[in-house]
Predict the 3D structure of the following.
Amino acid sequence: MTYDEPPATPGGTVTLAGRGAVFASPARITELYRAHLPTATRLAYLLTGDRATAEDVAQDAFLSAASRLGGLRDEAAFGAYLHRSVVNRARNRARRLKVERRYARADEPAPYDLPDVATRDRLWRALQRLPHRQRATLVLRFYLDLSEAETAARLGCRPGTVKSAVARGLAALRAELGPDFSREVSDA
């Protein structure tokens, strides 16, 4: 990157990125640009750790400081004003990145355990060996999470029939899969 000259308008006054006319001669702005921008860029690099970001921060800070040049009481304080502007812009950028990263992390899906395929297949095979009514009541009650009354309505039977079919189906699954299976399923 070269620090030759800031952009000038054909009319002779320097206009900085639509911020309005600067109350200093183009030669004075160019002189300040050459004198202060390399130091401001180094400062920005030390604060951000990234060259491209440092150049952007330093350029923005210079534009802001130069647009207020006419309002400075002591033009010799321009360097200090520019450095303060670089520090503020680097800090604001770091805050903005911190917020962006926090929201980006919030958008990530929550980690989950991979399903235990062997346990699922074992349960599926055992469920397929149950009589139709027991299998249907277990699926409606536990997979679709229906109440006993809703399950009875869907199957066209009484709620007592659903209770007994669920009890017999669970007993058959426990007998086939073993007593520790319900713990395996709840842990998985």
The CA atoms of residues 44 and 140 lie 64 Å apart. Residues 78-107 form the longest helix (30 residues). The radius of gyration is 36 Å. Confidence is low (pLDDT under 50) at residues 13-22.
